[in-house]
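Worked example 3. Consider a protein that binds zinc ion.
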Amino acid sequence: MLTPRPAEFEQVAAVHDTGYIREVEALSRLGMPLSPDTPLSGASYDAALLAAGGAIAAVDAGDAFALVRPPGHHASRDNGTGFCIFNNVAIAARHAQERHEKILIVDWDVHHGNGTQDIFYSDPSVLYFSTHLYPHYPGTGWLSETGAGEGAGFTVNVPLPVWTGDAGVLRVFDEILVPVAMQFKPDYVMVSAGFDGHVDDPLGSLGLTEDGYGDMALRVKQVAEDNCGGRIAFVLEGGYHFDALSRSVLAVLDSMAGKRCSGDNSPKPAGESGGRMADRIREIKKVQGRYWEFG
Ligand SMILES: [Zn+2]
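Given these inputs, the predicted complex is written out as structure tokens:
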């Protein structure tokens, strides 16, 4: 168990504009909303600093899971929406870069992490990979969004159809995430771990289960072991059905602790989404094939 310290102002300012940080502090003290879907209370600023500090503590510990709220992946440099105030995973990634060069961020929340994508869109040192329901909030994350300038090819978006299911997402991890990650060769792996794609969750409709999340974690853990000595940090994002959320987090912790063996890691029946997924994966390989090789 790790006890987080609030993130330092400079650590937050490595990602966010200082004017935005001051605005969050002032609105929080007044109890005024940051945006229509992101209310603040008098304690929100301190809670947001602690959440970012928790993600930093997970990076420093390594092989850790930051169980933090508020989530962060919708927060951009100068804007907070979607319950997100500061971008915890981005702040922790910049902190990791004090010692490690290349960071892979895997975002499996049901929503696209538009804030994280924006922050690193032109940055080849951080590869942002996201699976998310599409079309869905916040509206971004189509497969043609692949990065800009020097960052071209270092954003990989996998928009998923409704009821993709465990088998569909695992297929994406095997056919797209793993080959891209093995070519990128990260020095640190971070996961924006949202669980609102769970079949019981009221906010998404991907139809994932806790077993699926456990298997996704096994794949990401393997990427970290194969590339960077197992250096990995998970950071909680969404997940709004508390029982499903707790079961899913536990499945990930079991995978991290080696209690979930690769024997559990068998392909599941593809279900009705199988054909649609094959087409989608082909489309993504075509777009990303400008930057990465796929076997
Ligand atoms: Zn979400």
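Take a moment to read the result before moving on. Strands lie at 64-66, 103-107, 126-133, 155-160, 188-193, 232-236. The chain has a mean pLDDT of 95.
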